[in-house]
Amino acid sequence: MSVFDKLRSSKRKTPPVLAIYGIGGVGKTTLAGEFPSPLYLHTVGEETPVDLDMPSIEIENYEEMMDVFEHLLTQEHDFKTVIIDSLDAFEKMVWAFTCARMGGFAAGWSTIDSNDKGAPTAFGKGYLEADTDWLEYMDAVRAVSRAGLHVVQILHSKVKAFNDPLVDSYDRYRPKLQDRATDIIMEKSDALLFMSKRTSVKQIDKGFGKKVNKAEGMSGSERVIYTDERAGFLAKNRLNMPPSIPFRKGAGFTELSKYFYTPHAPVDEDGQEAA
């Protein structure tokens, strides 16, 4: 058998794996709820907006999440989308599973970041070991995507200082996950999208020649989905999306899905494959 027997088109044929984070109340779950035939997997405390009604399962531990994925892969169902809300709450379940897998309290794994004298989780080993379980989770997510389901992972955001080696450090939004987990989610997802309200900045005269910049929301509190990294936030995509996409309630999936089944090669403004 020649390696060229495996030659295939690079055109995407399966739904992408997305991770969406942003400021509170910006519409992350509302956007996810627009995806077709969704199954809502939520952690304790997460709820859908009042105008959304979706089949849902409350996830209480890592094993339950993996059991749902196995069911979706092996049993008949009518779902076309899986929504996970929120991934940062699920992170604590990953840590609990990692600690139990490594022997629990008796083996020194009382918490993922235990610094007890002699504990094997000291010096970040717990987060390093958790990589194994995050990668298993993402392998399952990718399998669900290959089976034909959209996967939308919802996260909250945090502000953290970014030490850019080229300029002075500055604050930026990023997912509310431990850094190693963020790297895995970014690497294994087709897009990490940041949602926010579009803002404008104007100068305010404080008198005596002093002026300050003040951010203010634009008319109607316009929402935007950002797809590429900027100074103020982390984002990425490998779906040939434009740098930003306006989010209008009821039209979010329609706008995003334009980029879901496209060649991996660059496309021009008319959506045609570039020469």
Protein architecture, described:
The protein is α/β, with parallel strands linked by helices and 275 residues long. The protein has one domain: P-loop containing nucleotide triphosphate hydrolases (Rossmann fold), CATH 3.40.50. It has helices at residues 28-32, 62-74, 87-101, 125-146, 179-188, 252-256, and strands at residues 17-22, 38-43, 56-59, 81-85, 150-162, 170-175, 191-197, 199-207, 210-217, 223-226, 236-237, 244-247. A hairpin with a 7-residue loop joins strand 5 (150-162) and strand 6. Helix 3 (87-101) crosses helix 4 (125-146). The longest helix has 22 residues, at 125-146. The protein is globular.
Topology:
Blueprint lengths: L16 E6 L5 H5 L5 E6 L12 E4 L2 H13 L6 E5 L1 H15 L23 H22 L3 E13 L7 E6 L3 H10 L2 E7 L1 E9 L2 E8 L5 E4 L9 E2 L6 E4 L4 H5 L19
Parallel strand pairs: 1-5, 1-7, 2-3, 2-4, 4-5
Antiparallel strand pairs: 5-6, 7-10, 7-11, 8-9, 10-12
Helix pairs in contact: 2-4, 3-4, 4-5
Shape-level CATH architecture: 3-Layer(aba) Sandwich
Could you say what the CATH topology is called? Rossmann fold
Separate helix tally: 6
Distance between the termini: 32 Å
- How many strand segments? 12
- Please report the first level of CATH classification, the CATH class: Alpha Beta
Q: From the helix content, strand content and strand pairing, which structural class follows?
A: alpha/beta
The SSE string, one letter per element, is EHEEHEHHEEHEEEEEEH
Characterize the overall form.
globular
Low-confidence stretches: 117-122, 264-275
Strand content: 25-35%
